[in-house]
Amino acid sequence: MAHVYREVHTVHPVVRDEPDYFAEAPLETGASTAEQIVYFLGGVAMVLLSLRFLLMILAANTGSVFSRLIYNVTQPLVAPFYGLFNYHPVYGSSRFEFETLIAIFVYGLVAIGIAELIALFDRRRYAD
Questions:
Q1: In this structure, what are the phi and psi dihedrals at residue 122, rounded to the nearest 5 degrees?
Q2: Which residues, in sequence order, are CB contacts of 9 under 8 Å at separation 6+?
Q3: pLDDT at site 49
Q4: 0.70 exceeded by the pTM?
Q5: pLDDT tens for each residue of 98-121
Q6: Residue ranges of domains in the chain
């Protein structure tokens, strides 16, 4: 019987000198948190307005608690845009509500603008 010779290799762990990214991270500023809050609130408004648009185009039943809640919550957000197309809201009938689409666009731009202003002032504060 022949002996099989096997070479034994020892495996040594590789130690790398990698920087500790968590230790070198800059301290969190209030501006980035403020930016996140602005983006969150803008996103919530846009989601609610998108739901309103969908419910309006599908002529959702106004007897439903959910559709009434969405209509009531988003009414103040869409109201400034009603005069653009001579429209008075009629719930329960299908309508492509351009005012809601414009509101989604405007509030999205406003949220981005406010967040960018916060970021700009934050950069100026720490640049000096």
A1: -65, -45
A2: none
A3: 96
A4: no
A5: 899 999 999 999 999 999 998 888
A6: 29-127
